[in-house]
Amino acid sequence: MTRKSYEVIASVIRRHRSEDTSGVSSGTLSMVADSLALVFQADNPRFDRARFFTACGMDEDGIWVI
């Protein structure tokens, strides 16, 4: 995958969190982001988990900041 792919996925997660009308809980979105980060790390050793979480709207530990 490319950096642009990671950015698009993070923006979708962030958008669903901020809309809060999707019916998806924040906890579920956190688990999805964490699971995706594990897959991305396995696929790309240079993948930056903290940067991905930031792009999703979370801190580097996966706690929502927005």
Task: Outline the secondary-structure elements.
Blueprint: H1 3-19, H2 26-43, H3 49-56
Number of structural units classed as domains: 1
Order of helices and strands: HHH
Mean pLDDT: 88
Based on CA atoms alone, the radius of gyration comes out at 11 Å
Q: What proportion of the residues form beta strands (DSSP E)?
A: under 5%
Which geometry do the CA atoms define?
A: globular
Largest beta-sheet details:
none
Describe the structure.
The protein has 66 residues and is mostly helical. It has one domain (3-56). The chain has three helices and no strands. The chain is globular, with a radius of gyration of 11 Å.
Q: Brief overview, please?
A:
With 66 residues, the chain is mainly α. The chain has helices spanning 3-19, 26-43, 49-56. Helix content is 65%, strand content 0%.
Main attributes of the structure:
3 helices, 0% strand, mainly alpha, single chain, 66 residues
